[in-house]
Amino acid sequence: MKKAFAFITVFILTLSLAACGGEKHELADMTSISTDGKRAIVWEDRTYEIFCVVSKNDRGEQIGYVDGDTDDRVSEYKGYSSEEWLVNWLPTDGGAMLLKEQNVVDIPDGLEAEY
Description:
This protein has one helix at residues 2-19; strands at residues 28-35, 38-43, 46-55, 59-66, 69-77, 85-89, 95-101. It is α+β, with helices and mostly antiparallel strands. The chain is globular and about 30 Å long. The N and C termini lie far apart (66 Å).
């Protein structure tokens, strides 16, 4: 009886996690290239160029990594579309780089190109 109760409990918890989005999504393996001597990231059909330094606190959910290196991480940028902005960061250092899709012209208030 106790085994059956434990099994049912685990089963219900598993279903609950799945229903609440508890499953992790697959991370994209993005590619780096050099444009004008600077690193850029290519994801799907978009190219993201380094724009400025930001705090790691400005990153959203991790959505990928670069060139197969799972420590070279890419996240969303605090609520902005990942089709326009990405944050590239390493878990071992304090900063992060904000990357702008090369065709974006609408820059959020408070941001200024550093590169």
